[in-house]
Design a protein that fits this description.
Distance between the termini: 9 Å
Number of helices: 24
Radius of gyration: 28 Å
Strand content: 15-25%
Structural class: alpha+beta
Largest sheet: 5 strands, mixed
Number of strands: 24
Shape: globular
Amino acid sequence: MKHNSILSLLIFLLGFGSITTSCEDMLTPDMDRYATGFTGKDTLYFYLGIMRNVQDMVEQNQLLGDIRSDLADTTLYTSDSVAAIATYDRSNMVNGENALLDRSAYYKVINQCNFYLAKVDTMAKKNNVYYMRKEFAQVEAIRAWAYLQLVQTYGTVPFITKPVDNANTGWEKNPEAWASADNLVDLLRPSLEQAIVYEHQLGYPAYSTFNTGSVTIKSEKLRFYNDVVLADLYLLRGQSKDDYKNAAKHYFYFLNNKMEKSSIGTTRRGAGFNKFEMGGHTSYSPSTYSWVSSEFDQTPSNCNVTVIPSAANSSFGRVLTTVDQIYGFDSHSTNSTSTSESTENGEKTQTTTTTGQLTLTANIRSRQIGPSNAYLNLSKAQNYVQYETNENNEITKLEYFEGMGDARVYATAPMLLTKTGDRARFILKDAPSSNSSTSAISASSVKFKFYRSLYRMNQIYLRYAEAINRAGYPHLAFAVLRNGLDYNKLPVLADSVVYDTIGTTVHKKTIYVAKNREDGPEIINYIPVDELRRMEDDPMKSEYLDFSGNWWSNYGIHEFGSGATCVKDSLNSYENLVGQRITDEALRSGTLQDAEVQAALKSLKKRVSVKTEGEGTTEGGDITYEVVEDPVDDYQHEANEAEINAVESLIADECALEMAFEGTRMHDLIRFARHKNNSVLGADYGTKWLAWKIARRSFDLLPYENVTEKDNRLYNLLLVPENWYVPNPQY
């Protein structure tokens, strides 16, 4: 086995020149600035150098997060190096011989961040403003994010905060600490919390735009948000309800702040179907462009939170085509030059402009990874629905599009017809197309996407749902999937006083019920009284459960691919979907007894609760009333664990449908598995769940169909959590 040296990292650190490929690189700072020495007061220059190194790791990270998951599978043309990763063949996953396994790109980013943080002067002022603190906060977030990716990919890794400037420090074997999912939040929280203070006080760096050669990308799209990264760290650990509440708090701050100030939320611009009637026959055609254009078009939209840009060709900087190549696209870059003439003060001036073009060609023999049967069948299993209302907002028609499933698959992994006449499903998240079809689309319609997305609003919204579900609010979490947390749709607590006179004693009961906030159909009619009461009693309610702002107008994430649900949609109701998933999980795991299953299913029903009022007299003064105790079984103070587990599994499905092939799936599975292992369901419940999902990826089965069918080799391998991760280098 080859020794993975840090020499390349040291060359970078000491020479700095390795961050650039061209004098026109869109992320290349003024290198002369470094030659004169870093003073601790540089802002843009060094910061962009760090971002340039993030470019070098982002595609590797994306592939390692996807090709090992349940959503991807190998093809006839998969190389040995990619196949070893995808099939968990650890005997052939040799670091140093496979570029995708090399962790040095991560540590280049971390070490440069460490260098910056060691030298930066956060007390430097300009116009009485601490102008270095914005970049300081950004660099803290980037370093934390890089460590998060390392831990999610490699498991336990060396943790260093001091710059490494020579080859003899021994940091790889004797670091400051060993970072893992269990302790990473503790290692990084103090610095992140300080960075959050700076962000909340001062805002974020604001530069100009970056020219990729073909399109321009706003600098704000390159921002990392410390609240989001810290929330991710809490969510990854997931050892207690406090972890989930802290994660929800930081996601909530970001979502609330972003939606209030920027009018950015989750809008109903999803993929859907058009219906056609002809000769008594009904047919459907997918319509996906609105989802593509709003979420992953060539240029990042408002819905993209953090991206890393790609140049059109090497004349403009780093070209990110590795992911496209693995997914079956050959790329071709060109330059074109145009000259324009203008006249000013009688003098003619010529301006020459150079632009870059990058085209993709689908090649079946370059296609090493394709969508798995598990992903295709998950999409197929969804219930697409649409409804109509009259002028009184009453539902007049409800229709299910039989057999259509989730429309997003026709944009994410459609059938392509290549120039050579081959037909196959290609992954298009980084090669978006404006066309869609249930059969096949022309490969010539795909375009190169000039960035790689690290965070999207929908992704953060889903993780918020994940956090509040485990914090004890499964119905609210389900609302994120189905209806969205729109303030005007949420029910509120109301009361009804009931008197029961026995002799001279009046028993006064206050029965709590849930009612709509506004007239019209009960859009969110499944949040029970006990959950609303838990919200009211939660001491952190204002920090992560306050939807009173009128900017909370989100739609459900599931609506992006399966239509808009309503109160009459029984197939997609909370009781039906969660109840079915409880039963599915009981059949899969064999860990829930019939009595426990029935208790969980019973807990799906709405409850009322009795509030104690105290003692006193009526207005007449001649009749007394006494306290009526609050029945314990009438107010569920804790959500049912099987119910939480079922909602979490539905969230996991939604993450697959919405976020497939964006580099997060394996990380999501590991995180969900850890949550399940840390619950009362059993120390290996999540381990078996993860192993089962990945071991079924090649089988042409609907979710939970024939639950015993799986790849036993892969299943048994993944029963060992160490095998979830890419091997660290051996020394």
